[in-house]
Amino acid sequence: MRGKYAVIGSLYLTQGLPFGLAMIAMPAILRQAGHPVESLGIFALVMLPWAFKLLWGPLVDNHGLARFGHRRSWIVPLQVATAAGFAALAHLPPGSTPIVGFAMALVLINLLCATQDIATDGYAVEQLAREQHAFGNSLQIGGFCLGMLLGGSGVLIVVEHLSWAAAMMGLGIVTGLLTLPVLLRPAGVATPPPGGENAAPKRASLRALLRRPGIWVLLAVAGLFKAGSAGGEALLHPYLVDAGYGLDVVGMISGTALIGLGTVFAFLGGAVTTRLGAERTLVTFVALSALGMGVLAILAAIGQTDLAQLLPALLLENISINIAYVAAFVLFMRWSSKEQAGTDFTAFQCVEAIGNIAAIGAATHLAGLLGYGAAFAFTALAGLAVALFLRTVLTKPAARRLDAIPEASATGE
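The structure corresponding to this sequence follows.
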C-alpha cells in the first residue's frame, strides 16, 4: 500500500513544478523586470492544457503498452520529457527572452504534465478503494502544493541567490528523481486497460460521461468551486512586488507561510473530509477562503502592506482552499467510473481549469484598471456566491443520485 501512495504522491508533486513556476515565480520575476501587471495574465495560458486535456483523455485510457504497463507506458516518457523541458529553460534567461516565449514554453511543459495527470488520475481511481479516497486525494493536493512550493517559491529563492539556470536544472533533476517510484513499482503501475487484458472493454469516451443523469450540475460544481480563489491568488505575487518586497521575501511568504502550511493542511484535509463529509467540507472551506480574500481586499484598499496585517488573511485563504480542494477531488473520484477512470476524473479537472482561467483573466484585468483592492473584492464576492451555489446544488437529488451509482455501471451505458 505504501508503494501505491508513493507513486501517487511523487507524480502529483511533479505536476506542481511547472504550474508553480508559471503562476508564482514567473509573474514575480517579470514584474520585477518592469512588465506591467496586466500583461502577466498571459501565464493563465498554462492552464489551457489542464482545461482541454479531456480531449485526449480517452486516448490515454484506451491505448497503452500492456507489457510495460498501461499507465506506466504513458507516465515514464512524459516524466523524461518534462525533465528535458526544464533543462531547456535553463538556456532562456528571463532578462532577454520575450514574455510570450516564456509563456509558450511553460504551456508546452504543462501540456506534458497534464497528459501525465490523465494516466495518474486513472491509476488512482483504479487502485484506491472508496475508504482510501480522502487520504489519496490528500496526497494528490498536498503533493501538487509541494510541487508548486518548489517550482514557485523555491525557484524565486534560488534565482535571487544563485541563478536562473541553476533553478531550472534543479527542477529537471527533481523531476527525474520523482520518476523512481514508478520504475521501482512495476506491478503497481502496470495496470491493464479498463476492462482487463483479455476482455473487450468499453471504449472510454466523453459521450458516456455526458449521458449521465445530473452531470451538468456536477460539472458546474467543478468549474466554480476554485474560481474566486484562483483570481485572487494570481494577484498576490505582483501585489507583494509592487508593495516593495524582494523576490526572496515573496518566495518565503508564498512558500513557507502559504504553500508550506497549505500543503500541511491539504494532508489534514483528508481527515476533515472524512469527519464532516465531502459536501459539507467543500461548502464550508470555500466560504472561509472567500472571507480571507475579503480581508485582503480591505487591507489593499487602505494601502496596508505590513506583513503582520497581511499574513493572517493570506493564511486563512490558502489553508481553506487547500482543504476545499481535497473535498472537491474526493467528490470527483466518487463521480468517476473505473471503466474510464482517466477520462472522467480528467473531465472534472478540465472544467475546473476553465473556470480558473476565466477568473484569473478577469481579476488581473480588473487590477490593471481599478487597482488591487477592487480586484481582491471582486474575487471575495465571487467566492461567497460560489459557496452559496455549492450549498444549494450539493443537496440536490441529482448530485446524490450520481454519487450513489455503482462503479461498475457508472458510465451510464
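Residues 129 and 343 are 18 Å apart (CA to CA).
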